Amino acid sequence: MVDFELTEEQKAAVKMAHDFALNEMRPVALECDKEGTVPESLVKKAAAAGLTAMAIPEEYGGGGLDQITASMVSEELAWGCAGIATTLGANSLATTPMVIAANEEQKKEYFPRLCDPDDPKFAAFCLTEPGAGSDAAAISTIIEEKDDHFILNGQKCFITNGGIADFYSVFCTFDKEKKYGGIGAVVVERSYEGVSVGKHEDKMGIRASDTSEVIFDNVKVPKENLFVPMGQGFYNVMTTLDLTRASVAALATGVARAAFEEALKYSKERVQFGRPIIAQQSINFMLAEMAMKIEAGRRLYQLAAWKAHKGLPCSLESSYAKAFCGDMAMEVTVNAVQVHGGYGYMKEYLVEKLMRDAKIMQIYEGTAQIQRLVIGANLMGVTDTYPW
After folding, report:
1. What dotted CATH number matches 123-233?
2. What is the pLDDT of residues 145-184, one digit of tens each?
3. Would the pLDDT of 304 be above 70?
4. Annotated catalytic residue, options 24, 213, 262, 365
5. Which residue spans of the chain are classified as CATH 1.20.140.10?
6. CB contact at 8 A, 344 and 336
7. What pLDDT does 133 receive?
8. Is the pLDDT at 185 greater than 60, yes or no?
């Protein structure tokens, strides 16, 4: 029997996140989008509420939220502002590879840094490079063993929180000729000599989120910072994304829900031809389609999160959710702008921002096309080595 009833703890977490989104994020969302920053005061409030460390296990000071609860919290935060939500949630992406593979000493060293409500810090997940996006085997950030340490050289791009992170989970290659078989991962601290932040990206959407290049120039990395040995990095990345894509689908659902609510409200207030436009079947049916698809997306991401929570294989369900919800968010926000007509095209209306925010949901943490490759591979019975 499927039970959709939330526990009291889940209800409390979702309500807390919604109240935070309503009272702290919504009032500054348009300004944060315009300026491309998140106020330090908001970050401190989020940290005090546990929203910057919600996926870090409790024994290290984090919230220890299960994947189901964390994804529902993500929906609420994205409803408030997808850019701010991306900033607050990036610690989960950066630390998930470490939750999977790091040893106890590494976890004790780095996780508590992200859990101090009085001095909130961020971490960043460093995988993408100028020449390696969906094709992780093409990464060229090289790590070489030198006596009692490693030397790291390379450049990462499109790194969420790259410009504000205290440390980085860096995927690199020990031997580029080995492709997937050469990939490993190390923790690199921002303070290490040779680490620098490059270009800060001026983005279409989620503008409040910091997205930057991170450059490693002959960086000396202690050997004890290796947390994914050579050859295991690709598996770690795939497992990480299987676990985090439900939350990305939830972010997309939150953006879509915000747009739907704005369109519904506007359609009841806007009068044309002597009656509210919601009474026009063309508008009414658009709103009905939005409502149906948002609900379907929510159930898909909850299924993926439930399987992850239970420790069951969830690659297929995560790709279902990520692909569907990303496409759904784009469709819903475009239609929400359409319902607003000319007003929806203006920056003073929230739907304009939501439409720009939605696009990234089809791109980051695996594009809509990559999700279809994963799904197609599963249909062919290829579940351990994908054909591309």
Report:
1. 2.40.110.10
2. 998 999 999 999 999 999 999 999 999 999 999 999 999 9
3. yes
4. 365
5. 234-379
6. yes
7. 87
8. yes
State yes or no: pLDDT of 120 exceeds 60.
Answer: yes
Q: Which CATH class is domain 8-114?
A: mainly alpha
Active site residue 261: no
Q: Any idea which architecture 234-379 has in CATH?
A: Up-down Bundle (1.20)
pLDDT in tens, 342-369: 999 999 999 999 999 999 999 999 999 9
Start-end of CATH 1.10.540.10 domains in the chain: 8-114
